[in-house]
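We examine the record.
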Amino acid sequence: MTEINLLPWRDALRNAIKIEFLIVMTIILALALSILIIGANIIKSKMQRQLKVNTALQANTRVLEAKFSAIKTIKIELNNLAAKQDALEKLQLERIRTVRLLEQVVYQTPPGVHLTRLDKKGLQLIFEGVAESNVRVSEFMRKIAQSKWITEPHLIEIKGADSSKGYYFKITAQCL
């Protein structure tokens, strides 16, 4: 048997509910899509802003690295200058020491002793020369031992030369 709907308003109500459901779903879909688009745009703008910040930070980092390398160069130059200054101070002290040493050698050398060579290696002094007698060599060593700037004389060698020349000697000592 055929069904006859005696109440057509039920069909109309169902159709109205379907249409209302589709309209609500379309509105929700449109809202969700717009929220997604707005969210994507916000995220994109924040990413662009962060990229700008990163670019600025990288530029600042390059500038700071250049300054750090300049500072390192300046520190190296400063260390080199300090080393040069130390060397100059040592040379200045050595110059004073050399003058005092030569002055002491002049005052400590007795008559009858002729120095032919004076070498300085570090703090060690090597005297070579000719003396009229062994007594003059002993006197020279005694005066060296009493000196303020020269100490610890040691006779390395003494030998007789020709009778007219005297005695050849070699003495080592320490300078202060």
